[in-house]
Specification:
mainly alpha, Tetracycline Repressor, domain 2, about 0% strand
Length: about 220
């Protein structure tokens, strides 16, 4: 509990976009809307750089990544310690992740059948990346800063380009490098801020960064 004389404040939300916990709001928060849109933009950047552009291909690519990243990956991530403090049952997270990932794979297979079987390689990589990163498979080897940047930066950009061009050229590599660098910067900055927000409220609502909130009167950061 907080020490005597502690200054009680409103609990800090786990993310700036997190809605009040409960009901449909949890599902909106679960999507991490700003970050999902950010990483979907890499798909659009890759597609826009292709020598030929097809709107229908971009739309399906965005739909697949929304399901795989926006829904499945974030549902699995929330299972690990409830970082967003949602009240969604664990079983619902698993079902949501499985259905969303299956939907993304189905879109990918249909796209490959329509536009080129080379897309299956991207479908397979994406289907493995989601659980490998968020469930920390392979000893957590993928769950690193670089793994994040490659999985959710470079990979969407390369896929967006390939779905349009059915090949990869130097501009696709440039887009992937750009997305990787930006994702690394994003992760570095957002992780620091997110940890501060999530640690800034003790169970009683007082700021854990304030010495008065520690039972011993010392800073709890050690």
């Amino acid at each position: 509990m907080c020490g005597a004389g502690a200054s009680v404040t409103e609990p800090v939300a786990p993310a700036f976009y997190a809605l009040r916990a409960g009901g449909w709001r949890d599902y909106v928060t679960l999507l991490h809307p700003p970050y999902t849109l950010w990483h979907l933009s890499y798909v659009a950047i890759g597609a826009a750089l292709a020598p030929a552009f097809h709107t229908d291909r971009l739309v399906l690519a965005l739909a697949a990544f929304f399901l795989a990243l926006g829904v499945a990956a974030h549902a699995l991530d929330e299972l690990n310690g409830r970082p967003l403090r949602t009240e969604i049952p664990a079983r619902a997270h698993v079902v949501l992740a499985a259905l969303a990932l299956a939907g993304a794979v189905a879109i990918g297979v249909a796209a490959a059948a329509a536009w080129g079987w080379g897309l299956l390689a991207f479908v397979a990589v994406g289907a493995v990346l989601v659980p490998a990163y968020n469930l920390e498979w392979f000893g957590g080897a993928v769950h690193t800063g670089l793994g994040f940047a490659l999985a959710w930066g470079a990979f969407p950009a390369l896929t967006g380009y390939f779905v349009e061009a059915q090949t990869l050229r130097v501009e696709a590599i440039g887009a992937a490098a750009y997305a990787t660098a930006l994702s690394l910067a994003q992760r570095t900055l957002s992780t620091t801020r997110r940890r501060a927000r999530r640690r800034s409220s003790a169970p009683c609502g007082c700021s854990r960064w304030r010495p008065s909130c520690s039972p011993s009167g010392s800073s709890p950061g050690g």
